[in-house]
Design a protein that fits this description.
single chain; about 575 residues; alpha/beta; DNA polymerase, domain 1; Beta Polymerase, domain 2; Beta Polymerase, domain 3; seven-stranded parallel β-sheet; five-stranded mixed β-sheet; 24 helices; about 15% strand; globular; binds 2'-deoxyguanosine-5'-triphosphate; binds calcium ion; binds zinc ion
């Protein structure tokens, strides 16, 4: 699968063209990169089947891009890219995880200080050289050092949404290996943590050697790190490690439990076994006489020890073991309970497809309704809609609602929250939307108390239904604004404002812990994919996973209401808020 590699090349070409002050190519390449990154079909397959023509049939891929892809598939290189890199020999890879340092800054740093990679930059910033450059200053220098520290913290971890399609494909491939009985990815992947350190695959098989051979020869394996009869470890082409363990079927449940973790959860569980005079490990649960009393299934491991089985998402040793012992586990929201997607963009602002195409794609994924939430306000780079455009979109939505059966499109928008907490669109317009999301897209660096006040003022506006990506963090890139979250939760509860679980792979904002706190405050939550293309609509599952990790119940998530119910709910909340 070359998709991710090509996406990376395109995204770096966008940066290199930005350095050259090219007007149009940066956006075109960045858009193509994002599209390819979230595509499920394999570009190499498409090319091999139907050539450049087939590639051009992908929406958003023109002739030039298609030819680049062809060149890459054939030679592993793109000449234009190599040429661009010669003019600016900067290790863009090393900067990809450092937020807030754009291409123009990189070029200035390279030209003036010879900075080529992160460690050069860190050295220059620590020596106080960066602040002396025109347009940089002390504050920028400090932010650069903070970004570098943040990226270190995350080094070697991969986004769940990024790894997920790859793991699913490996599971499917391995299931067809000779003699395989059971196969499942465990570890943080099964617990659906927002980032994954390495992939832990577990199998039971009649012949472990055959599946091992199959595993180490998968096409996306770049290098074999260790190879044994029951355990092997490889490095995949995207840079993450994956290991495979093979156990006998009678131990599969025990191994599943053990390798799903988390480590802290396992340690607590083992203490319970020890108290009973038993032993618990990846081979099973054993009594005093070392007889296996459970191990074939995960359920029986928990049951024998007196616990109810719980979803992997809950296994972080955050109180779930006590509740399972007392048979008082909460019934968390199921994936099927969530029937709509409450944030997405179309060509009316910065999305790749029109309203109808997004609606049809969402319907195909089983959603019962959606909210179209294009940008309104100041965000000119994101193509914020003006009033005329809004009215045109409403007319189109009315028409589509008559046309598309068993489906509904809500009229929504994502409105900018101004630095003073007011909304960047007049009230009389806000009132006419079915659903209004308020978001912070500018002035990120306010003090904690100012930022908290800003968000609370937005929540006090009864026309704002949902605060989107409430903390503003971007995994691996930005740590989020300074906020007093307890104050925010209290205000959300008081004003009956819904807080979003933004389901975009690098946002997942609110995160699991904040979700749990919000619920304890009685705050309602919404799920939105924030899709900018129809290929991203499947990300809803990532948000649901985080909701489950935050122990959300069906009643906590407004996306479990029907379209009629949610409209009534939103009207009612506006009436009750002063
Ligand atoms: P990751 O890979 O950093 O995203 O996180 P995990 O949870 O996948 O951790 P990993 O890959 O180191 O180990 C996989 C599972 O194996 C882990 O969730 C629980 C189990 N495990 C690992 N080390 C220990 C340990 O020292 N004690 C116990 N009881 N279990 C462990
Ligand atoms: Ca792992
Ligand atoms: Ca591991
Ligand atoms: Zn947008």
């Amino acid at each position: 699968m070359l998709n991710l590699k090509i996406a990376k090349v395109f995204s770096q070409m966008a940066e290199l063209y930005t350095m050259k002050d090219d007007r149009f190519r940066p956006r075109a390449y960045e858009k193509a990169a994002r599209l390819i990154e979230s595509m499920e079909d394999d570009l190499e397959d498409i090319y091999k089947k139907s050539g450049v023509k087939g590639l051009m049939e992908i929406e958003g891929i023109g002739k030039g891009m298609a030819e680049h892809i062809e060149e890459y598939v054939k030679t592993g290189k793109i000449k234009n890219f190599e040429k661009l890199k010669k003019d600016a020999p900067i290790d863009l890879d090393s900067f990809s995880s450092v937020g807030g340092v754009g291409p123009k800054m990189l070029l200035a740093l390279y030209k003036n200080l010879g900075v080529k990679n992160i460690s050069d930059l860190e050295k220059a910033a620590r020596a106080g050289k960066v602040r002396r450059l025109p347009r940089f200053g002390q504050k920028t220098e400090k932010n650069i050092l903070r970004s570098i520290a943040l990226s270190r913290e995350h080094r070697g971890r991969f986004l769940l949404g990024f790894v997920s399609p790859i793991v699913s494909k490996m599971e499917k491939d391995l299931a067809s290996a000779p003699g395989v009985q059971k196969i499942l990815a465990c570890g943080s992947f099964r617990r659906r943590r927002e980032t994954i350190g390495d992939i832990d695959i577990l199998a039971s098989a009649r012949d472990s050697r055959a599946i091992m051979e199959y595993f180490v020869s998968l096409p996306n394996v770049e290098k074999i790190i260790a190879r044994g009869e029951t355990k092997s470890m490889v490095r995949l082409d995207i840079g993450i490690d994956a290991d495979l363990r093979v156990v006998p079927e009678k131990s599969f449940g025990a191994a599943l439990q053990y390798f799903t973790g988390s480590k802290d959860h396992n340690i607590e569980l083992r203490k319970i076994a020890i108290k009973k005079g038993w032993k618990l490990n990846e081979y099973g649960l054993f009594d005093k006489n070392n007889r296996q009393i459970a191990g074939r299934t995960e359920e029986e491991i928990y049951k024998k020890m007196g616990l109810d089985w719980m979803s992997p998402e809950m296994r972080e040793n955050r109180g779930e073991i006590e509740l399972a012992l007392a048979h008082k586990l909460p019934k968390i929201v199921e994936y099927e309970d969530v029937i709509c997607d409450l944030q997405m963009h179309t060509t009316y602002s910065d999305g790749a497809q029109g309203v109808e195409e997004m609606a049809e794609a969402a319907k195909k994924l089983g959603r019962k309704y959606i909210a179209i939430t294009d940008h309104v306000g100041h965000l000119k780079i994101a193509g914020a809609m003006d009033v005329k455009t809004i009215e045109r979109q409403w007319r189109e939505i009315d028409g589509l609602n008559r046309k598309i059966r068993n489906f509904r499109i809500l009229k929504g928008c994502e409105a900018d929250i101004n630095p003073d907490g007011t909304i960047a669109l007049e009230d009389k317009y806000l009132l006419k939307f079915d659903i209004v999301l308020g978001s912070i897209h500018s002035n990120f660096k306010m003090s904690r108390s100012e930022m908290t006040k800003r968000l609370i003022r937005a929540m006090e506006n009864p026309r704002v239904d949902i605060i989107s990506h409430p903390t503003g963090r971007v995994i691996h890139k930005r740590s989020g604004y300074e906020l007093d979250m307890e104050e925010i939760f209290r205000a959300a509860a008081r004003t009956k404002t819904i807080l979003e679980i933004n389901s975009y792979p690098d946002r997942l904002d609110l995160n699991d812990l904040n979700i749990r706190r919000a619920i304890e405050h009685g705050v309602k939550l919404s799920l939105g994919t924030d899709s900018h293309s129809k290929n991203q609509l499947h990300n809803l599952d990532l948000g649901i996973a985080q909701a489950r990790r935050g122990w959300a119940k069906k009643g906590d998530i407004v996306n479990c209401l029907t379209a009629d119910q949610i409209v009534a709910f939103l009207e009612n909340r506006k009436r009750n808020v002063k």
